[in-house]
User: Fold this.
Amino acid sequence: MAARRNPIAPLPPAGEVLRARYAGRLPERLEDLAGPAAGRVELPLHVAWSGLRTYDLGKPRLRMSLYRTVLAEGQRDDVVALLDRDLLIAQWPVLRSLVSRHVRQAWEEAFPRLADAARPASAA
Assistant:
């Protein structure tokens, strides 16, 4: 009796799936990030479905938490509307250690400037 072949292709590794998911949420350019740089921001429920939803951008810990949440849970429209380019770049050296490896890889592969910002000055 001949062995039956499984017609379903093997699933890609979970890391690939996650990187692709986050890559699909990226803006085309960092300059497209048009979020506020100051004031209070309230996240929509589909982004902050649990816990804190309103953040004061004047408070560094809250600002970092907002960016971490949007990077992890936001869709492309959320990323563009809620994140500010200059704040993202300035926070990236610390922020990159607070997000998942897959989020970090997607953003740094798409925007080498972020990876450059994360390198110590002596390595540049």
